Records
---
Amino acid sequence: MNRLDVIRMVGDVITDIDVLRGSLLPDDPLRQKMNDYRILLDDRQQRLTRKVFDDNTPAFAAAAAKLKKIDSQIEASIDKLDNMEATLKNIKTFIDSVTNLLSAVAIFA
């Protein structure tokens, strides 16, 4: 997995969040949490596109593999509206992992 793959994966999760947000009423507290997560993840994706770093390092490979695993968990839970809390938890873990990836491979500003 390379940098472009990670950027696309983050974009796919952003799209998943947008779809989930669309299924919730505007005043639903879960929708506000999704809005917040989307903003955070969009920021991380933009940082990934702007930073220059080597995606051939062990740190990048380990972080990308962790992201892929969490992405699979999001995909497994996303279609089950009764499992929204698990999906939210997975999305939060994904955001934290993207932040950790940025911290490991680039100066996080």
---
Amino acid sequence: MEKNVDLLEGAARYRETINKGIRYIVSEINPDGSMNPREKGAFAFYKIPWALVLAGRYEEAEKVIRRIVEDTMNEEGDLKTEKRQKFHLDYYTYENAWIALAAHLISLFDISFKAWSYIEKFQDPGSGGYCSKYPFRKGGHNLEDPLSSAWVSNAGLHLGKVKEALKAADFIQELWDRQPDEENNFYYYCYSDTGLVLERPENEPEDRFFRINTKEPENWYYILGAQIAFLSKLYLISGRAEHLNLARRVQEFGMRCHEDIFRTDSAGKFCYGNINLYRATGDKKYLDIACRCADYLSNDQKPEGYWMRGGKATASSTAEFCIWLMNVLYLGNNGSIPNVVKGAKPCSV
């Protein structure tokens, strides 16, 4: 067997960070598949299985998935629980998509496709966008958004849901083309009947609940990262220039944002977006940006292997950040990427 040669600067550090993070996560899994602290409920740990799958910890991944499913999945395929809070209600399909993807990666198709059967109810058959809070209602005042649309479609690509993904990409394209002030703002609240929301809704406490501003700090940059990753992956299937161009457009908007995009938790999905854009283009500038984000994540890890949120150790954030680092480690260390991209062919869908 040939000796592994790291092509990526920082690869050894990322590998060590990942190993420490995965060890911490595994230490928090109970024999019945629940996670500590138990009182948070199984649903709170929806990010754990994907990290375990990528790390090759398949038995632990299945154990946690089955615990979540047993505790929360209903006959419709929804992961229903009273423990959902603000974000988990505002972007309802987001969490469900994590479980659908992780289950599918280890061939738990009875779970992944059942979960998708509920998720798919949120897609607007007209716009292609996915509704934020409730399943699509014909003739209703449906709130749709790019995070739900991109993240669900990111998982759906693994289940072969290409037609649905193409429609979601059309929605995201239309959303960007409607922006009235793209140099400074990205408005991401959109109603199916009235269009973009350009003023903060009364029920939202902060402006960042409906737009990302390039001059202000602490925006929700993960909304950008999710779109970049999805569109880059879709381009590898479709071969359509508009998908790659839009991924670049979203990325360029992110680069105009406040520099804390590289030093907050949102750096994670911006990292994921850029490493997938590197995968789609072979352009090293995207790899460098992904590594800049990855360096922040790696440096923010505690010696015990976890990351903190709200002043407490969190297995959920630890799992998420390990996922982004594993993507950087693999894609950034893959010297064949430019050759793969050159061979991309459009799909016939």
---
Amino acid sequence: MTTRREYTAQELEQTTRAEELLRARGLDEGQERIVDIIDSHFQMYRATPVTAEFIVKLIEAQPGLKWLSAAELEYNRTAAENPAAAAAQLANWLANQKTLISTGDEGFLNLTELLRELRGYEITSANISSAIDRIQAPRGKFVSREGRRPLHFVQTPRRTSPISPAAKADDGSPFLGGDMVRNPDGSYRNKNYAEQKSEREAAEAASKRTGASAQSAAVRDAKSKAEQLRGNNHSEDHQIASLFVCVPGTSEINWPDTLAARLRLQKSLNKHRETARFIR
């Protein structure tokens, strides 16, 4: 009867190191399949040393495995450096607008550049618009961040019908200007200071409501996902459900950070289970 090859603690450390290297290079395959490939090889070739370098080469040579593109991998790294709620709000904004490309590698590149430009800012429509302007602005001494890359916009269809000189000269502005008010007698006047101030305050209030609404939706989504996470037995379910992250200095639960912490715990529990199966 052929016995299985038993792995030493040092060899298991090498497999863990190999997984870290492979994930950093974009491996997006389930852990169970990777463990099966590694174990099958070393059970067949028992004299082969188990090293992280060899395992990386072995997995990279396997056909049919799933890998993240360079653009998606870069976005994942950038998102990990920012609050989970901010990344979720920005991704939701991009998916629901029509100006920037939101899918494929160009979509991930847009998300990466916007997330970097918005670091430290609240994710609102006004702030996103300002960030787009800064990214697209010509390089100069007022550039806010080095190494910026231009965004990818949805291509508009080319116009084939003739354009008159009058249409070319029209910049879209209202004939009487956007700040004119019609009087009861039919004449027009400029808006006074109080009217202009009232409009500005209304616009700022609407912007704050939009930002608060988006943030609230992101928190609700994070809470729902966190409460749905489960382990593989009652003990793991209890460990995951008992993990909370609070806002510093308060007893208020930070649901986006709680979701991230529970996902890390779930992954750790899964990894422990796979490792235990691997060495049996």
---
Amino acid sequence: MTPLEGIKVIDLTRFVAGPHCTLVLSDLGAEIIKIEKCGKGDDLRIIGPKLLHSSLWSAVLNRGKKSLELDLKSKEGRNVIIELIKQADVLVENFRPGVMEKLKLGWKEIKNINKKIIMARISGYGNEDNGNARQAFDATIQAETGFMQISGHDKKPTMIGTVFLDYTTGLNTAIGILAALNKRNLNNEGDLVETSLISSALSLSMDAVPNYFLRKANFGKNGNSDRFSSPSNTYKTKNGFIHIMAGSDERFAGLLKAMKKEELFKNKLYNNPKKRLKNQFSIDRIVNNWTKKHTIKFLGNILSEHSVPYGEVKSFSQFLKTKIANSKLIKGRIGHKDIIVPECAIRIKSNKRPHKSLIPSVGANNKEILAKIGYKKKNFF
């Protein structure tokens, strides 16, 4: 038995945040019915490299789901979605605020159709009546929330290299849905779950919020060095780069033993964490002068010997060749072709079911889904 055995989810999402949320639910055992535009499908299907007319990014996010083509604006489409809502446990959507209300599928209508359903709403700025209902993407929210001004080394705004706000919001939404399902088990009533990319950005901002209101301090760029401890930075080696985290007294002592410079612990510039942070440029120079004389393998061995955390700076392709990466990968299938995709990041020991591998084409499950609610394919499409 899977953790979400018997849970049926209507997936009205597109692009990344919503599909990532429903992918997590799918991998935990829920049945996901992905509603897609007739003939076109999710807009993500056309973005990036493709295999058999399906984008690989879309394949990663829609693995294991069922696809139903539906025009929500048509009379028949509305009849179908209402029937599905009656039978569903969860509905997830990430349209711009107001779109579901225009379709007469807002929370008031949804809960009148099924009082036990959980409705989850994802937006850029929140669903509050704040007049900010424009479409949002990860990069535009990174720009507006200051994340482009805290990333990189120079003064130019720098986007983080992946859509981390989308993925974080997807996870936040999945957590909210699981909490609402647990509450429903207690009171037998549905609930409304709301998340936003703005809220996710704020939740990832470390101490920036209270520090601004207490001291008017700005959360600015810091390169690769840690904001609160030193030495903690990326250093050059004879054959690449290594990132070392040795900010605490214990780890700094271990690093000095590895460097054979134990005397620095008594130096008044470096003898406590606060002083090391103040003098991080000079201590970084000392560490870099040591690392650049050695190979990554030598440094890794001696740092491990002295319990100093480190990471070899690798390209993504180098990482994917490692044993640990391969232990977290599974097969997906587009048509008759296998592809390699990430497994669910959550492992539950009792979840013995095989991984969901099939990536559906647009409308692949039309007949199956419609038959269950009394429709026949020939008189609908």
